[in-house]
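Reviewer comment 2.1 asked that we show a complete input and output for one of the modelled complexes. We chose the flavin-adenine dinucleotide case, as it is the one discussed in the main text.
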Amino acid sequence: MNILILGAGPAGLMAAKAALGNGANVTLVEENHGVGGQIWRGESKLIDHPKLAFIGGARVVSRKGERSLLLETAGGGRTLAWERLIVCAGARELLLPFPGWTLPGVTGAGGLQALVKGGMPVAGRRVVVAGSGPLLLAVAASVQAAGAKVAAIVEHRGTRELARFAGALALRHGAKLGQAATLAWRLRGVPYLRGATLVGATGDTRLRSVTLRRGTGDVSIDCDFLAAGFGLVPNTELGALLGCAIDGGRRIVVDGNQRTSVDDVWAAGECTGIGGVDKSMAEGRIAGLCASGAAPGATETGARSRAHDFGELLARSFAPTNALRAMCQPTTIVCRCEDVTAARLTQHADWRNAKLQTRAGMGPCQGRVCGSACEFLYGWQAPAAQCPIFPASAATLAGAAPYADISANGSSMLSAGSVNHFGPDSVM
Ligand SMILES: Cc1cc2nc3c(=O)[nH]c(=O)nc-3n(C[C@H](O)[C@H](O)[C@H](O)COP(=O)(O)OP(=O)(O)OC[C@H]3O[C@@H](n4cnc5c(N)ncnc54)[C@H](O)[C@@H]3O)c2cc1C
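Response of the prediction step:
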């Protein structure tokens, strides 16, 4: 049995491990050169497995026929056929517009963490981490460990709401509470401002300071970086490309076996709904088992239920509140690819009209940033992904060489060139 897995984050890695354990041949495709996804980025080691092939630095951009995908690689376009497929495409950050959010030095919360993990030096630089949710603590701890001075963590939710969240963690997810306590200990001494909202970022050629509102008073903090995170949005484009049912444009729909609405296609991890790394791992394991012909046991389904419970708690506790809409002023740029302000967008009734009249969503991000922002700001449902689902070169679209037949085992795929075997110690 040949299984193609798209995405080498925790979900994809656990799916690969489960499927290999069940005797399947596995090909794992990942747009980054390394494995690990958002959370284990650059921290996973490579090992060899005779039935596993890894295609790194390859992004799926479109379909080429009924059961074949088009990949963009540094060496040009490649096609890849599949028999059984598991989508593990993860999530991206929800970026909400506020004055100054396009200044150099302002990033998403996870975005700054990714840059730091990728080697960007921040030693001695002052960082404000703002937004809402537990990711803020993880990001602040990462940048502090890299030598930055965290000037403040700015949490939109108030003390009472955070206490309720901690109480629910203590009752049902003690290990998570322990992780949060460890991060809080590492960040002791860093001002943790609760019930505070971003008013704006100011600077000249780059960010110089951030203004916050707490109650009725505003306060400004000088800083070099602002990492602003308001939650995550599932990456549904690959599911949509394959024709899978997507719930309200928000998540790939799966059944209890992680099976999508399309024959021989499963999905796992944040692309089926936001819930954290444990959810991704539990769902990945179940998808890998089911795609390779086995049934999940009580251990797997129990782990998934606990992880789903945690995901629901996260959503209840940290979903962006309506008050955050006030961050976006009429002159604030919402579509940063095409420089479209909020004032221009609010003249239109829906996303389609706004797009036709202003070009919002027609830049390189294809609405991945402003589409989610407009959904939050104006309640407009973002449009379905168009092919190619990511920007691709004309050469990729015009002609693509096939990878070796994936019905061969992993080793034969090595002859295709940019293919390596791998396996992170932590999960394989
Ligand atoms: C920027 C960011 C930082 C985060 N940091 C943390 C953290 O520090 N701690 C924490 O607990 N959680 C963090 N999270 C949450 C994190 O998403 C999950 O906990 C976990 O990584 C999810 O695993 P996953 O396998 O579902 O998705 P991911 O880890 O997102 O893995 C999905 C993989 O699919 C690949 N992919 C997607 N589309 C394509 C395509 N078209 N072609 C080829 N490859 C593709 C991506 O490159 C990615 O490697 C972060 C999320 C984001 C967005």
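The radius of gyration is 22 Å. We note this here for comparison with the apo prediction described in Section 3.2.
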